Amino acid sequence: MTDLQTLPGAQDDLAAGPTARPDAEWWRHGVIYQVYPRSFADADGDGIGDLPGIRARLPYLRDLGVDAVWLSPFYASPQADAGYDVSDYRRVDPMFGDLSDAAGLVEDAHELGLRVIVDLVPNHCSDQHEWFQRALRDGPGCTARQRFHFRPGRGAHGELPPNDWESIFGGPAWTRVDDGEWYLHLFAPEQPDFNWEHRAVRDEFRSILRFWLDLGVDGFRVDVAHGLVKAAGLPDIGSSDQLALLGSAPMPFFDQDGVHEIYRDWRRVLGEYAGDRILVAEAWTPTLERAAQYVRADEMHQAFNFSYLCTDWDATALREIVDLTLSAMGEVGAPPTWVLSNHDVTRHATRFANPPGAGIQMTTPGDREVGLRRARAASLLMFALPGSAYVYQGEELGLPDVTDLPDEVRADPSFHRDNGQDGFRDGCRVPIPWSGTEAPYGFGPTVGGPSWLPQPATWAALSVEAQTGVDGSTLELYRAAIAIRKQQPALGAGDGVEWIHAPEGVLAFRRAARVGDPVVVISNTTGDHVRMPLPGRLLLGSSDVVVDGSEVVLAPDSTSWWNS
């Protein structure tokens, strides 16, 4: 080799700090960080994360460089499904604090330049919700039951469910009450579905939106946004393997056209408030074109890109899904979103450690070294794409899923039911490590204190403290990536990519902006070194980069950014 030079992956030209883009329509390019409250930071030492713990750690998120924080549910709840069974939408569950803690968190975040997005769960509530309890008390035919889906059963004595729908968590989607009627719950029996054809339901959620907007929140991530409206007559599906069809075929309880009227109504509510308040759809749809309908100009602002999340670490597959996403979102003028992990799927450092095609929930750790290498590369690729990027807490530390949790500590309700989801979501929900060499690694205030899910002994080396200031650490890679993304107008903003010819297994594209130099992004998804013409000056790499004269030698499973 001649002129051989090894360049460190992260560059040192960030001393001036990131330059923020204009505030208007920040959500078109923003980086949004998901906080799972029970696993982020525990201020009172009971082993469960809380709002005061999050407030204390907000400076960390500011320094990471993200634009907004999305909080998973912290509402009053019996916790049958980790807070996604809400008993009171206007009250904070005591395990997380109280309403003053929520207000203080929003105020602190705004002072630090962070926006706050809260989860909203409109498809279903808790069976302990006042409305549902009244429906049980008042009996068949009462007004309260019309707010849910109560039906008589089938069979000679009403002993069979009203239709053949299956719960996402396993078993029938119907539960029979003492007076003989059945109620619908697409998830756990403790989560009865609202009837969104009823005016009182629509009025109530408009009021809930205003309650939190008045408190100062900047938007809502809408849980099961595709599920609110059911097909008229609640028709049978006629299949005994319904879960296998989810996300790939039309279903009478998901992605019905009637949901869009609801979100147009909500958009008008947000329009009553100053600032860029946003709606984000969690919408599992059969196609990206269907997902794009949720983000038409008068509906939501963003929709999660689950098609991208489900794509393997493969150049051909990634290019195809990027093209499909940009085309579908471009048709409606909406920004794409990109996400690799969240609280419902195995962390991508573990998914990519396993063979392709293994799905999005797994209990095999795979090759940890390969998984981390691919996860870092995938994250840089995600940050370079046009649109908004989501980060799930702990991925910036390179955390793997905890795949060997004992059965007796698992809290995922679907784990304890038959024929439902795999039920292994607890592995991505283990509390994150902050500091120290012993559990709970700064998650709680006391060394050796409790943690609602056990943390691995190996996590001391992955803590925020252990990685801060360490060249090449995953945390510093994320900090550098987000800072450069803000400094370089060609990254994040815009709505398209220019593909560059590259060897098989390599993804390469150019991003350009009206101001500033173009950026070339190269991802080598193979397990081998690959040579390409030197594209310019290195901005950032997920691995060290070797330059050999007029060529760059791409490391296996790596992504690099270049000013061309």
From TrEMBL:
<dbReference type="InterPro" id="IPR006047">
    <property type="entry name" value="GH13_cat_dom"/>
</dbReference>
<dbReference type="InterPro" id="IPR045857">
    <property type="entry name" value="O16G_dom_2"/>
</dbReference>
<dbReference type="GO" id="GO:0016787">
    <property type="term" value="F:hydrolase activity"/>
</dbReference>
<dbReference type="Pfam" id="PF00128">
    <property type="entry name" value="Alpha-amylase"/>
</dbReference>
<comment type="similarity">
    <text>Belongs to the glycosyl hydrolase 13 family.</text>
</comment>
<feature type="region of interest" description="Disordered">
    <location>
        <begin position="1"/>
        <end position="20"/>
    </location>
</feature>
<keyword id="KW-0378">Hydrolase</keyword>
<feature type="domain" description="Glycosyl hydrolase family 13 catalytic">
    <location>
        <begin position="34"/>
        <end position="425"/>
    </location>
</feature>
<dbReference type="InterPro" id="IPR017853">
    <property type="entry name" value="GH"/>
</dbReference>
<protein>
    <submittedName>
        <fullName>Glycoside hydrolase family 13 protein</fullName>
    </submittedName>
</protein>
